[in-house]
Amino acid sequence: MEADLIKRLIEICGSDHVLHSPEAIELYSRCTIPWSRTCGAVVLPENVDQVSRIVRLCNEFRMPVWTFSRGHNWGYGTVLALQEGALIVILERMNRIHGVDEELCYAIIEPGVSQGHFNEYLKNRGSHLWIDCTDSSPDGSLIGNALDKGTGYSPYGDHFGHLCGMEVVLANGEIITTGGVSEQCPTRYTYKWGVGPFVDGLFAQSNLGLVTKAGLWLMPKPEAFEMFAFRVPDPENLAPVIDAHREMGLRRIVSNCHGFNEFLAVARTFGYPSHLLGGKQSLSEKDIEQLAVEQGLAPWTFVGGVYGSSRQVKAHKAEIAKYLSSLGELVFIGDTSEKLLNSIVRGVRKPGLQGALYKGLKSISHLFVSRLSAEMMGSLLSLYPFLKGEPNESILALAYFKNKEQQPKQNLDPARDECGLIWFAPILPARGNEIQSFVQNIKQVCAGNQFETAVSLIQVNPRTFLVLVPLFFSKKTSEETERAQRTYDQLCELLKTHHYQQYRCTTPQMERLLECNPSYQHLIKQIKQALDPNQVIAPGRYGV
Amino acid sequence: MEADLIKRLIEICGSDHVLHSPEAIELYSRCTIPWSRTCGAVVLPENVDQVSRIVRLCNEFRMPVWTFSRGHNWGYGTVLALQEGALIVILERMNRIHGVDEELCYAIIEPGVSQGHFNEYLKNRGSHLWIDCTDSSPDGSLIGNALDKGTGYSPYGDHFGHLCGMEVVLANGEIITTGGVSEQCPTRYTYKWGVGPFVDGLFAQSNLGLVTKAGLWLMPKPEAFEMFAFRVPDPENLAPVIDAHREMGLRRIVSNCHGFNEFLAVARTFGYPSHLLGGKQSLSEKDIEQLAVEQGLAPWTFVGGVYGSSRQVKAHKAEIAKYLSSLGELVFIGDTSEKLLNSIVRGVRKPGLQGALYKGLKSISHLFVSRLSAEMMGSLLSLYPFLKGEPNESILALAYFKNKEQQPKQNLDPARDECGLIWFAPILPARGNEIQSFVQNIKQVCAGNQFETAVSLIQVNPRTFLVLVPLFFSKKTSEETERAQRTYDQLCELLKTHHYQQYRCTTPQMERLLECNPSYQHLIKQIKQALDPNQVIAPGRYGV
After folding, report:
1. Interface A:B, Cβ pairs < 8 A
2. Which residues pair with B423 in a beta bridge?
3. A197 and B528 in contact (C-beta within 8 Å)?
4. How far apart are CA B400 and CA B283, in angstroms?
5. Mutate which of B164, B193, B461 to disrupt the A interface (most A C-beta within 10 Å)?
6. What is the per-residue pLDDT across B464-478, written as a single tens digit (0 to 9) for each?
7. Cross-chain Cβ contact B185/A501 below 8 Å
8. Strand arrangement, sheet containing A175-177
9. Which residues of A touch B429 (CB under 8 A)?
10. How many helices (H) and strands (E) does chain A have?
């Protein structure tokens, strides 16, 4: 990168916050997908004024900036730009909490505020508010995830839907506040649509501005809470189970439920079971079935939260039982049973106890619990905190699935440790048959390339499921990396054939994203041209 | 209007659908607010292709078009443009229903589909889906109201929030579909945010395009439904009642509740009680209190719906009682009691029965019912269908409040009948004290101008209330009309002092709307300039 530009960036942010040494470039240019870009430099502004000055400077130098809130974006392309040598702007130092309104239940935060930090912040101040978190790293940005249309576990799981009121730096460096109202307007953070056109959507999955502050609606802590976990022993029941979730979602009994297949549960819990390969490149359906039997896993498991007053929770539990009981095995877990189960699961792991405690539990407790191995029970319980907005690192184990021996105790970094991970993320209507058949198609593509299939089904709204498929591979072998890329390409072709949309897409894929809708693409281009004539902010992001 | 333009419009839409006779101009240039514009002509296209051709033509002729779905927009400015002599495009002939998905619970409709027609359509086809309606005329457009960020009575009351997937004609005549996905994408109408930037918001309260088709989410008919009605006898309790509604909204017990004061109830039910004036220009607080006592009205009444399974409704009713019982008198009305009460109310009106039936009811029934006069009970019951998505004309009586003698039995048209009505529509955070004190301020302004104050408080989301104030006057006397205008101006000044935003604003007010946020206004201007360089579509609408 031009020395003059670096010098000017240092003038703005200080030399500690402009990273351009070979080591820094190497560190920030890593990713887990089969793709590579080398960034030009990384700059970490501290406030909105610095962001504005950086953007103006980049206009002067015609330097593209790729923007990133904080966290990692593993499996989608980390912080890397479409362009070689771009300037990466990471907003992690902008981590101020500008206010929490306990009455109206919202917070005003900057993009550098992580879900882990903010959850702890609220707990420490004795707040009665809960965040909705993702199952990704606690280090992830709340605003960044919301702008990427991320999804969580609670009734506040539609993250973009719960942003309200933004401060944005435009490509000309101008700082605006959205809503069409004055900055002092008392409903800026409570009434999303504002007056006049609603422009906040322009800054989601796009490159039309950098969001530097936003309001985020928070859920008041419910009087009662339980998790439901539901085993589907017959794989043919997946379709009616999805239909039941659609009905329950529409009737506001549950929201943002997560389902997963047995192989995803295995990947969250263990390293890759290569001892079962016996010379093959991947496990057969039979191998996986056998593994599932050993661990007491059903082909599909669904989990979700039940929130409300004691009366509401009681009513909703009865409804859930009505919709699901005939299709599998249902259990509810509250705070007390979660603690008990967790202590037993931990006990089993201690040498000497030899699982006696867990076996004792098996003989007395609910069918559901009695079937799962202690490891799988532990893995299931690690989802419990997510439903209460408490993020943890458990999901990161996924990324190390094929590199288990490399997984450190702390400071996990799959990109550094050569873990391969790509997320395939199509969105489907909540029709059981359609989703079941598409999952079959995915399995065929994966099996045809000697990969097993891990799948999550996430109800992003009552009418819609995200079918989230992680492709695991080791970046150490180029054959496997190429095979993963081929599999991903074939899955994307499959998606196109069905005209499905993507929830989020990997960076290299973005350029061709809007080709399916040329007149729409033209509209977006006109807006981009008007707001960013020098194509400075993240050119090409999400096809814009 | 230029004869050549008229000729070309007729070529596109046929002579029956281009209205430019003096009678037609007069008919369409009426409105109920103290303001006047004369339109140049009215054109009624039948399909999206005609809309596109009209827009291209207007670019050629540099003719501004003011766009309107269908219905009336009484009290905000009817169909009239900011510009004298503009072409008015009304989409009422585009009234096709392109599909109803009973499983995923949405419909695809054109802007000419009215709420009354669509409700009947669903009933006639035995659909299990309910619309959310406004309390405005059944003739109003569902899409038009949603694009104006209208609000209803049920959990689907955020109308813009329940639009999903649009077809739009841009100012250059291009027809686009939103969502960033292909036209065949199966989640176009189920997943609102699409992929890439979310642009649908650009077409709400704006002039950046004409929406010609959209998806609308519908509520599955609940197993159980009841209306709650709540009297607040002590006006000092308004603040805690609002706070209770905030809590109930946040905890998803109720949504989109409506409160109203005693004078609004009077205006919905009777003509203006001028016999009480005794030479004064307006009624005193004491007069209104006396009137309320006669009719059994409390200072404030709130209503809302309880929806769900029998179990959910039971739980929610218990919660509502928990939050409200100590603050006033609460009653629940279901289908059976609604029918009974209605038949009794009708019975009372029959000569001969002399209210015996109603009095009988009074002596045996709930306190709440026993207090209200039969007329007021009838008026309250007329809200019941709204909660189930069934619109009726009852609210139109409001517009005739000061011109009761002119109100026809059928074919109500307040603009034709010289009724004066302006809506003042500020939006406030859901804090009881703040709303109570602002209502006091409103009352002072109205009283200072010899007007009584009628107020609705509508919970547009858990955190926010719309404070809706109709100003009634007779357009027959210029003194009263001027006084109404002065009152409205003073109310708008009051709103500015508090930095409150408007929910919707009257057309003449639009031009100065975005002055409070110049950098935002600049952004909107840049987008408008890029998409509509000739300023053809509705220039000035909502400050754009």
Report:
1. 299
2. B470
3. no
4. 18
5. B193
6. 999 999 999 999 999
7. yes
8. A97-101, A106-109, A210-217, A163-169, A175-177
9. 104, 186-187, 190
10. 17, 20
- List C-alpha distances in Å: B226 to A111, A523, B312: 43, 46, 11
Token pair listed for A5 = 């530009």
Distance CA A242, CA A458 (A): 10
Residue B110, burial from CB neighbour count under 10 angstroms (0-12, 13-18, 19+): buried
- Whether residue B427 and residue A499 make contact (CB cut-off 8 A), yes or no, is no
pLDDT of residue A354: 44
In this structure, are residues B30 and B54 in contact, taking their beta carbons and an 8 Å threshold?
no
> Could B520 and A178 be called an inter-chain contact, meaning their C-beta atoms sit closer than 8 Å?
yes
| Contact in structure between A517 and B189 (CB atoms under 8 Å) | no
Of A174, A197, A513, the CB nearest to B202: A197
Could you give the 3-state DSSP secondary structure of residue B254? Answer: coil
Query: Contact B105/A463, CB-based, under 8 Å?
Result: yes
Residue appearing with tokens 């509509």: B532
In this complex, which of A182, A311, A519 lies closest to B315 when CB atoms are compared?
Answer: A311
Instruction: Please give the structure tokens belonging to residue A450.
Output: 């000697």
CA angle B102, B104, B108 (to 5 degrees): 75
Nearest to A196 among B197, B206, B427 (CB): B206
DSSP 8-state code for residue B114: B
Do B296 and B372 contact (CB within 8 A), yes or no?
A: yes
| Whether B313 contacts B224, CB under 8 Å | yes
ipTM of this predicted structure: 0.96
Could you give phi then psi for residue B415, rounded to 5 degrees? -65, -45
Are B196 and A205 within 8 A, CB to CB? yes
In whole angstroms, give the CA distance from residue A332 to residue A358: 18
- Please give the model's pTM, rounded to 2 decimal places: 0.96
Residues of A in contact with B187 (CB under 8 A): 427-429, 463-464, 500-501
Which alpha helices (H) appear in B281-410, and where do they start and end? 285-295, 310-324, 335-349, 356-364, 367-371, 374-381, 384-387, 396-399
**Cα B388 to Cα B225: distance, rounded to the nearest angstrom:** 8
Q: What residues contact residue A445 under an 8 Å CB cut-off, 6+ apart?
A: A487, A490, A491, A494
**Cβ-based contacts of A525 with chain B (< 8 Å):** none
Give residue A366's pLDDT band: very low, low, confident or very high (50, 70, 90): low
A411 CB-near residues (< 8 Å, 6+ apart): none
Nearest CA of chain A to the CA of B102: how many Å?
A: 11
Residue A468's DSSP bridge partners are: A456
Q: B523–A199: do the CB atoms touch at under 8 Å?
A: yes
Among A154-168, A340-354, B366-380, the range of highest mean pLDDT:
A154-168
SS3 of chain A: helix, strand, coil, percent, to 5: 40, 20, 40
Residue environment code for B114-135, b if the CB has 16+ CB neighbours within 10 A, otherwise e? bbbbbbebbeeeebebbbbbbb
Q: B439 to chain A, minimum CA–CA distance in Å?
A: 16
Min distance B464 CA to chain A CA atoms (Å)? 6
Tokens 């939260």 correspond to A305
pLDDT at A72: 84
Residues of A in contact with B212 (CB under 8 A): none
Distance from CA of A515 to the nearest CA of B (A): 9
Q: What is the DSSP letter of B221?
A: P
Which residues of chain B are within 8 Å of residue A106 when distances are taken between CB atoms?
463
| pLDDT tens-digit readout, A217-273 | 999 999 999 999 999 999 999 999 999 999 999 999 999 999 999 999 999 999 999
B266 DSSP 8-state letter:
H
Distances (CA, A) of A210 to A90, A149, B497: 11, 15, 31
Task: Tell me the chain A residues in contact with residue B512 when contact means C-beta distances shorter than 8 Å.
Answer: none
pLDDT tens across A164-193, in order?
A: 999 999 999 999 999 999 999 999 999 999
